[in-house]
Design brief:
Layout lengths: L1 H17 L3 E5 L9 E5 L4 E6 L2 E10 L2 E6 L6 E6 L7 E6 L8 E3 L6 E2 L13 E4 L5 E5 L10 E5 L5 E6 L9 E6 L2 E4 L3 E2 L8 H18 L3 E4 L18 H8 E4 L4 E4 L16 E8 L1 E4 L17
Parallel strand pairs: 7-13
Antiparallel strand pairs: 1-2, 2-3, 3-4, 4-5, 5-14, 6-13, 6-20, 7-10, 8-9, 8-11, 11-12, 12-21, 14-15, 15-16, 17-20, 18-19, 19-20
């Protein structure tokens, strides 16, 4: 009899864990923003979508506590470079920077500079700066308040002089967090509970899997492609499922490996006022390895950009 009861309890536990996978909605208290929509898959992937943000990663469970481990970039920055014969000094396009967060850039022979001024209230595009002198290296840094093991990151520039620096804000660098699973609901910090678990509809499941696959790819890119106006990777058939950028480039462009330039086989007529969408020539930027550094650098009070919009 004891063995039968044990097997029944084990079956119930396994069945209960299986049923954890599903959709959960947590209200934000604002009826207009859609709240927080959680999807937990049986393969232990998860995604949380809310207005203007998606977090994805892995979930695991110990007893009734679920630990969510978001997929995040290795460092707060990525640096991509190419050699541009038109550039005599150092050219940098600052991508994805946040007006609410401080970040510093420079080279090891001079003071670092804040990228944005303290009262910046908008970000023009492209956020572009051409420095008169060639940089020996690039140093990127976060404020002291975000220091963990290392504060700064350095990149050896080799032959490159034209760069795209990607910044990942603190919203995308989320440490693991937990929720309690009870009565088919998720209970987060402060006893904020979700609605009861629901089945994930097939369309949401398809979108979720696609997003998670793209998200992991985006964080591990070795190269990016851009036109002269820094239209980064937004080419091809928008909305096309399973779009393969590599195949698209091979089919539609001739590639010069010595210059790392793609030239359209069938150039499109584009007006001068729409240079952003001129994709007749694309440039390959290669990812540069970053190395964490414990060196402390002086920081200038003068920011690289002084941006204040009305």
């Amino acid at each position: 009899m004891g063995k039968v009861i044990f097997c029944f309890l084990l079956f119930s536990l396994m069945n209960g864990q299986k049923n954890i996978a599903g959709a959960y909605h947590v209200s934000s208290g604002n009826p207009d923003d859609g709240g927080y929509n959680w999807m937990l898959l049986e393969n232990h992937n998860f995604a949380m979508a809310t207005f203007g943000q998606i977090i994805a990663g892995k979930w695991s469970m110990d007893k009734n506590i679920i630990t969510f481990t978001p997929t995040i970039p290795k460092y707060p920055f990525d640096v991509y470079g190419r050699f541009n014969p038109k550039v005599k000094g150092t050219k940098i396009m600052f991508s994805n920077f946040d007006i609410n967060e401080d970040a510093y850039v420079g080279n090891s022979s001079e003071e670092l500079q804040p990228v944005l001024n303290d009262d910046a209230n908008c970000l023009p595009f492209p956020l572009l700066k051409e420095f008169d002198k060639p940089f020996k290296d690039l140093v990127l840094s976060l404020p002291l308040s975000e220091k963990q093991e290392n504060l700064s990151y350095t990149a050896a520039l080799k032959k490159y002089n034209d760069f795209i620096i990607m910044y990942y804000s603190s919203r995308t660098r989320i440490p693991p967090f937990q929720a309690e699973y009870k009565d088919k609901k998720l209970y987060f910090r402060g006893d904020k509970a979700s609605r009861e678990r629901e089945e994930i509809n097939p369309k949401d499941l398809k979108d979720l899997n696609k997003y998670m696959e793209q998200g992991i790819t985006e964080l591990s890119k070795e190269t990016i492609v851009s036109n002269e106006q820094y239209n980064i990777d937004s080419f091809g058939m928008e909305g096309q499922e399973d779009f393969d950028k590599k195949s698209f480039l091979e089919l539609n462009y001739s590639y010069d490996p010595s210059k790392e330039i793609y030239t359209a086989k069938y150039p499109q007529a584009v007006s001068d006022d729409d240079a952003y969408h001129n994709l007749n020539k694309l440039y390959k930027y290669n990812k540069i390895e970053l190395k964490p550094s414990t060196v402390s650098y002086k920081v200038s009070k003068k920011s690289i950009f002084n941006v204040t919009c009305k």
